[in-house]
Every structure is written in structure tokens, then in C-alpha cells.
Amino acid sequence: MFEERFEKLGMNEQENFKRIVNYFLAHTYLLQVQYDFSDNLRYTNQDYIFVERNIELFQEYLQFSGFQLERDSNYGVISLRSPYEINRQKFDKLTTLMVYVLRLIFEEEREKLSLSKEIFTSTGDLVHRMISLGIINKKPADTVLRDSLRRLNRFRIIDKAEGFWENAGTRLLILPTILFIISNERISTMYALLDDVTDLGEEGDLTEG
């Protein structure tokens, strides 16, 4: 029984359990590796280790509410899934296309990797790639760009070093969760969106024709 197993945890472990469950509900993904931009080093995420050690307890608890907790040890990602449509986040078209381009960059750079496992881009490079692909005709308004990137950060798709999200030189880290937010099957269907993208308005609102 869940209650019996939960009670066997220490007080600090019980608090960690509660905190991490709330983290999953807010961010969907938990990564094994954390990157510190200040010293350019990788660190093991102790929350990931805790979940991995108690994975069955987390899964049992979350199943009561219809959630599935899935672990991919190859990429070091634990993700929260739900079959219910009400729990699915809807991205606007710009953010969705941004995910698509980030996935393209991730796949391209992954083939070039040698020792480093981190894949970086920048806000400027991302926007330039979107323009070169014909997805947008010009740089989105700063507020729109910032909101889209912040949302992707909330769901642990990207991270950044110092600087404002909308600044061209801001360094972005593309996290391996990019492989989970959009499946290989769906990546091909994203091309269809390119035929239905219109320009961004003066205020940065995405106009759908």
C-alpha cells in the first residue's frame, strides 16, 4: 500500500516527495543532469536520484490521479504524462514552431558532438533559423519572443545563461526533453504548419489567416 511505504520515508524524504510531485505538476520534466553556466560544469540532479530510487512510490501515487510517470535512462529524463486532454498544454503557433526549430537544431548539433553532451544555440540564431526557413518574415516583438522562450523554460525544454531572453546574444541550452515534447512521428507533420504561417503583427501577435 502507498500509505505504508510513504510512512517508511523519513520526514525530510516525505517533504522531498511532496515538493517533487508539485514540481512535476508545474514543469512536466525532471532531468538527471543540471548545467551550471557560471562554471560550465554538469551536476547530477539529486531530485532525479531521489525519484529514481523511489520511482514505484511516485508512480503509484500519481496513478491515483490518472498520471503516468515515465523514465528514460538513456537521456536522463523523467516525464509526467496524462491521457486526459484537459491536462495538455496548448502552445500558440509561434511557440510550437519554435519547438520544431529547436528540435532541428538539436538533431543537427547532436551529430557533431564529440566530448561535450550539451547543445547550445542563441536567441539570435534561433530567430535567424526561423526566418531562413520561411517560418517568420521578421524578428517577433521582444515581448512575444520573451514569453515564448520563458514558457519553454518553464517546461524544461531550454535553459539560458545570464541575459534577457529576447536578446540576440543570449546563450540557450537545448535540453534533451526536446526529444519528448515532440515525437518522431509528429516531427514530420510539423512541415504542414509551415504552409499556414503568416507574418507577425506590429505588436508581435501571431496572425492566423
TrEMBL record:
Organism domain of life: Bacteria
Xref: InterPro entries: JetB
Protein's name in the database: DUF4194 domain-containing protein
Organism lineage: Bacteria, Bacillati, Bacillota, Clostridia, Lachnospirales
